[in-house]
Design goal:
Elements lengths: L5 E3 L4 E5 L28 E5 L1 H4 L9 E4 L3 H5 L4 E4 L6 H18 L3 E4 L12 E2 L2 E2 L6 H8 L3 E4 L6 H19 L5 H18 L1 H12 L6 H16 L5 H19 L15 H17 L9 E3 L6
Parallel strand pairs: 1-10, 2-3, 2-6, 6-9
Antiparallel strand pairs: 4-5, 7-8
Helix pairs in contact: 3-4, 5-8, 6-7, 6-8, 9-10
This protein binds iron/sulfur cluster.
Iron/sulfur cluster binds next to helix 1.
Protein name: DUF523 domain-containing protein
InterPro entries: 2-thiour_desulf
Organism: Mobilitalea sibirica
Length: 311
């Protein structure tokens, strides 16, 4: 097994709430370009903007909508409704709009979605904006995205370089692990080795358990174990890390690099050194680049995207 990172050349498609990509499609005719925060990195992905409320035929400008009698999940089971500010029931239209967007995302091959939290349609963990409660989360479209297992990224996190770095590395690992074959012990060991550093950062106990069980596995149990490992690891990779865990991982991996290469990277600081999240994100990107150039495995960020023309 090669102890190097995985390089993928596939440009991943990410769905995005159209109002977060600059389209003025909100009920009040507004929108924000949050993707501009990614700078040139925006070009490493293909974006598929959708707006469930526009696809519902509600138009811009429109009356704001709210969930009534339950959350977005209950709308799908017929136990809750969607009403506009005038009290008109628009449930069927909103469901049709959400389905049309899911169809578009599926045609585009999107596995991830950048959502506008706070919306009664696209919201996932919040359906409240500026203290205006529009029902209980998730929203109608958000509920469908959760059900279908999309990798969900809140649009507000694109504004933080460190949060985006965390989302990106987990998304790339998620994509690789979702598609890698796990039919033999060797494939399973490789998938485990490549993802264990990141998984350990996210949940140490789970990772230790899997590692212990993997050591005892016999050939006839590989399929069942592989399916369980993949499902649980994908669930884990959907959840964000935090600044403390990330800086500790960076330091651990840098120490490994230093030992192996016998050289230092001056810009990388120990976890106890106070610095802002922008500096930490810069150090992480530097560590990724140096590890790649020197062929040292940076397990904290095990899957990298490279354009076919670059190395
Ligand atoms: S939050 Fe979703 S439904 Fe609302 S405007 Fe944005 S894309 Fe459209």
């Amino acid at each position: 097994m090669e102890k190097t990172e995985i390089i993928i050349h596939t440009k991943l498609t990410i769905g995005v709430s159209a109002c977060c990509m600059g389209s003025p499609v909100r009920y009040n005719g507004k929108g924000w370009d949050l993707l501009k925060n990614l700078g040139r990195e925006k070009n490493d992905f293909r974006w598929c903007p959708v707006c469930p409320e526009c696809m519902a035929g509600l138009g811009v400008l429109r009356e704001p909508i709210r969930l009534s009698g339950g959350d977005g999940t209950k709308v799908w089971t017929g136990d809750a409704e969607v009403k506009n500010r005038k009290g008109e029931i628009v449930t069927n239209k909103v469901i049709e709009g959400a389905l049309a967007c899911i169809e578009a995302l599926s045609r585009a091959g999107a596995i991830a979605y950048v959502y506008m939290d706070g919306s009664p349609s696209c919201g996932v963990y919040r359906t409240t904006l500026k203290n205006t409660n529009r029902g209980n989360p998730p929203g109608v479209f958000g509920a469908k995205l959760l059900e279908l297992g999309f990798f969900l990224i809140p649009a507000s996190d694109l504004q933080s370089p460190l949060k985006w770095w965390d989302w990106r590395r987990r998304l790339l690992a998620f994509y690789w692990l979702k598609n890698v074959p796990l039919d033999s012990k060797n494939q399973l060991y490789e998938a485990w080795y490549k993802t264990k550093f990141l998984c350990r950062e996210l949940n140490q106990e789970w990772t230790q358990n899997i590692g212990r069980n993997l050591a005892l596995i016999v050939e006839e149990d590989v399929k069942e174990f592989g399916d369980r490992f993949r499902k649980e690891a994908l669930d884990l990779l959907r959840k964000p890390s935090n600044t403390k865990k990330i800086t500790n991982s960076l330091w651990a991996q840098y120490s490994y690099y230093k030992k192996l290469q016998g050289k230092s990277i001056e810009e990388i600081n120990a976890p106890e050194i106070k610095r802002n999240v922008t500096s930490i994100a810069k150090e992480l990107l530097l560590m990724e680049r140096k590890a790649h150039e020197d062929k040292v495995f940076f397990g904290t960020s095990p899957v990298l995207y490279r354009d076919k023309r670059s190395n």
